[in-house]
UniProtKB/TrEMBL annotation:
Keyword Transferase assigned: yes
Keyword annotations of the record: Transferase
Protein name: GNAT family protein
N-acetyltransferase domain residues: 3-162
Superkingdom, taxonomy of origin: Bacteria
InterPro entries documented for this protein: Acyl_CoA_acyltransferase, GNAT_dom, Ribosomal_N-acetyltransferase
The organism's taxonomic lineage, starting at the top: Bacteria, Bacillati, Actinomycetota, Actinomycetes, Kitasatosporales
Originating species: Streptomyces racemochromogenes
């Protein structure tokens, strides 16, 4: 399977609308994209501009997905990754995540870290984050609106430039909260009280 990445340009607007509206996106806030909304987002510069850049994911010559890079002037950009239904579950998302990570750290020297968020029940994306060296940094309860009207937990991951360069993953320090009575969680008092 040959995977390549082709930068999106204004000439691709109709193809982008067809892509966004021609499938469902179960792990996005809106599972079905309205064509008028897609065109509005394109016109607003969400897919190309100073702060955004988009790439088609091409598998064996077919457009299988899309990587949208956002907040490119910031030192912590974000991204959106979408794969057509027929291409899900084949490891393409993980390879695209590895590609976009390398692309951002290589092409943008000011980038210190890359962040991504997914729904808690998107197990494939969570595996892809871990395999690509991203560390879980956040868990937000009932923070992600789902197409069924309910809310799901959102899980945030990030990779640091230094970890990417060394091939390591540095997890955050999770046990730094004081206990309920002001102790350090092990029964010892914190601070000057």
């Amino acid at each position: 399977m040959e995977i390549t990445y082709e930068q999106y340009g204004p000439a691709h607007a109709d193809q982008l609308v067809a892509f966004l509206c021609g499938d469902t996106w179960p792990f996005h806030a809106t599972a079905a994209v309205d064509p008028a909304e897609a065109r509005r987002r394109i016109a607003d510069g969400r897919y190309e501009g100073r702060d955004n850049r988009t790439f088609w994911i091409t598998v064996d010559g077919e457009r299988a997905g899309l990587v949208r890079l956002m907040d490119l002037r910031d030192d912590t950009p974000l991204f959106d990754l979408r794969l057509r239904s027929a291409y899900r579950g084949r490891g393409i998302g993980g390879r695209a995540l590895a590609w976009l990570t390398t692309h951002l750290f290589t092409e943008f020297p000011h980038v210190r870290r890359i962040e991504g968020t997914t729904r808690q029940d998107n197990e494939a994306m969570r595996r892809a984050f871990r395999r690509s060296g991203y560390a879980k940094e956040a868990h937000h309860r009932d923070a992600w609106p789902a197409p069924d009207g309910e809310f799901r937990d959102a899980v945030g991951y990030a990779i640091l430039r230094r970890d990417w360069a060394c091939g390591t993953t540095t997890p955050p320090e999770w046990d730094d909260e004081p206990g309920p009575s002001g102790d350090d969680g092990a029964g010892r008092r914190r601070g000057g009280l």
